Amino acid sequence: MLLKAIIVSDAPKLATSSCIIQRSSSRRKPLSTSSVPPRASRTNVDKQTTTTDGDFYQVLQRYSTLYRIVLARPMSNGLILDEWQRIYIQVVNELGLLLDGEKAKQCCMRLSCRLLVKGPEGFVQDPNYHMETRGSLYDAWETMDGLTSSNWPGFYDSGSGSIDVRIVATHSKVSQKACCPPKSIYIHISPVFEEPYSFHALPLVIGPVEVEAEKSARTNDTWGADRQSKAMHRAFCLDQTSMSVFLIKEGWMCGTPGKMWDSALVLSDMLVNRIRHQPQYLEHRRIIDLSAGTGSVGLLISSIYQRWFPDRMPQITLTDLPEALSLIEFNKNLNFNSDINANVRIEPLEWGNIDHTTHIANSGPVDLIIASDVVYNPSCFSLLVQTLETLSTPGRTVIYLGYKRRGLKEEDEDQFFKLCSANFHISLVQKNQMSDGFGDWEREQAPLVRDSDDGKGWMGILPSGRTSSLGNPQETGVRVYRLTKKIN
């Protein structure tokens, strides 16, 4: 995913206490918006331009309904059994912008924690340890940072909060050991739907952390540089029975490729929902996850097939700029064993680079190209379209492009879709909508359609009929387009 920094080349630099949105010249992903070729889809709000920092801030917040829980401060990655540790957290949108004004005052969210360890079928509840939580009481100086004391762990009338946690051995024999070897675990922090519940946010997974039975010289040095962790992950629930999850590590300080942007959340959920109901949908297909960023979309698809339909595994190639591939490789190794290597490849691909494109195209015709949040920099539009054209085969290749309006002007959007329309059929993916220019394989399976629950897999379980006081989590502003190459 390449969106390396703020999504608009002329946007003011924005910073928060939890992260910095960086500027980058790399050709990559998103800063899109939510309009599309059909003029009827545009709204007066979409056409507005901004002239002040305040107005621009509001534009960036407009479609912020998929909030995230993030670390506000680094935490120690070495924890002692039966000792309380405080984790400082915040609620932000995909750009790292904090809640402000009335939104912050409406933020009430109780949190729960569980401990995860890696198992053969994903990350599951640790059988040896569990986590106790409690509300936090703050000193006077801490309340100046917007923190509000509460009787429950989480957020209370503020977008800044904390949770006090303590790791306790599930079995007494574990805690009785004189020396317990370090055990790497992950802390899964997620909202609880109990009063006073006001809205939802993507759960946060922190780790790995090491658990020790008693303090040692290493764990006593909690302020050492090697003892402080900023590692944040997102979790997708693979199985509601076992509550096993798939993890993706983010690297917010890495800029665009280090984040899971909203379009990736929506597109991955759309595809997974389809696969679960129709596993033959992508059976043995050749897929490219273009400018994959964290690798969340392509790796999640691979995880679903490996877990439930191993005999139907597609061939997936995840691409991005050379300097961004290490995060994809990390997330691949985090979730898979070496036996996945034959089906999942990670390759460099810079838009417009003939050598990169030719190398990938020579591997065989592509059935599906996934492109989430790649429309953000007008100066790169022609190179992006050129790359899509080179990788596409008429009558076979289908492109699903996720796009969200954040800062591009209407004329910039028109420019991109005009470039695409010269050689591609373009349609907006909606519920029960048929399109032109099917790929042969897609004609057999039927094209992808939208669902009101798109994106919910990353959110956890949202109670039926419940919406947030800050908005409906499914109203993301993300639009998904379907492109197929015309037959000349």
Polypeptide structure, described:
The protein contains 14 helices and 22 strands. It has helices at 44-47, 53-61, 101-105, 140-143, 172-175, 217-220, 262-277, 296-308, 325-335, 354-361, 381-391, 410-421, 440-445, 456-459, and strands spanning 32-33, 68-71, 75-76, 78-80, 84-92, 108-119, 122-125, 129-134, 154-156, 160-169, 183-192, 204-212, 228-229, 232-239, 244-250, 286-289, 315-320, 344-348, 368-372, 398-406, 424-428, 478-485. Strands 1, 16, 17, 18, 19, 20, 21 and 22 form an 8-stranded mixed β-sheet that branches. Helix 7 (262-277) runs parallel beside helix 8. The two termini are 31 Å apart. 47% of the residues are buried. Mean pLDDT is 78; it is low at 1-51 and 462-471.
Give the helices and strands, then pairings.
Blueprint: E1 32-33, H1 44-47, H2 53-61, E2 68-71, E3 75-76, E4 78-80, E5 84-92, H3 101-105, E6 108-119, E7 122-125, E8 129-134, H4 140-143, E9 154-156, E10 160-169, H5 172-175, E11 183-192, E12 204-212, H6 217-220, E13 228-229, E14 232-239, E15 244-250, H7 262-277, E16 286-289, H8 296-308, E17 315-320, H9 325-335, E18 344-348, H10 354-361, E19 368-372, H11 381-391, E20 398-406, H12 410-421, E21 424-428, H13 440-445, H14 456-459, E22 478-485
Parallel strand pairs: 4-12, 16-17, 16-19, 17-18, 19-20
Antiparallel strand pairs: 1-20, 2-5, 3-13, 5-10, 6-7, 6-9, 6-11, 8-10, 11-12, 12-14, 14-15, 20-22, 21-22
Helix pairs in contact: 7-8
